[in-house]
């Protein structure tokens, strides 16, 4: 109940965790204690929700604890109480761009745990993330973190938030459009769109523009293997949903999508994940007769033979 004392306690804990000679035995020996600390810190933040100074201190401390845990290969599955406390902080300080940058980074780290990601979904954080993205579309750090959180939340098999997830598609597309030349953010946005399309959240009317946007992301960032892989997986999901997406790949205004696929493979021919994603995309496209004829005319069979030779046991 005394925010000034809490601030001092936060500072002491922060210094303790940062001591390099303590790291080797902090985890997993001190893991139960640190997990309890995260709950107490989150409750303190919720109790003193109006104190921005304490929110910053608490956020920094939670970031440090989670960072150290990840360094030691420990995934901290924060419970629903912590998720609820963080949501209160997000809502109370939704206009503070500088603080939100740190807070969204914290949410990204929290969502790395499948259990914690599910808890964030349960407390209903997705609409707040979308609101933050709309307001701070220009902020690189916020866009990257929020897209990473959206990917973690959408990739779950439980799609009870279907309507909410559908509303995330245009916002995520706006992020990708805004940051096409920023490979890190574009990669996170492509991953989020893949998870959303996998859940069937892209409407038929959005399939064509979303496919065109993903193709543009591949063109702008050809060297990023993860972006290429997840972008192709997202395209495959769109093609599975609608023939419109397949035709959009063939007839893209900026050039043949088939040629782009071939170029991407030759650039990443030693990446099995990229090859598998490209094969999945081609397989989905080949389900449509008109599209398959076009693929044959552009010698896709030759590319498939190359992939088969490169990965004979995969």
TrEMBL record:
<dbReference type="InterPro" id="IPR016024">
    <property type="entry name" value="ARM-type_fold"/>
</dbReference>
<keyword id="KW-0418">Kinase</keyword>
<protein>
    <recommendedName>
        <fullName>non-specific serine/threonine protein kinase</fullName>
        <ecNumber>2.7.11.1</ecNumber>
    </recommendedName>
</protein>
<dbReference type="GO" id="GO:0004674">
    <property type="term" value="F:protein serine/threonine kinase activity"/>
</dbReference>
<keyword id="KW-0547">Nucleotide-binding</keyword>
<keyword id="KW-0723">Serine/threonine-protein kinase</keyword>
<keyword id="KW-0067">ATP-binding</keyword>
<dbReference type="InterPro" id="IPR011989">
    <property type="entry name" value="ARM-like"/>
</dbReference>
<dbReference type="GO" id="GO:0005524">
    <property type="term" value="F:ATP binding"/>
</dbReference>
<keyword id="KW-0808">Transferase</keyword>
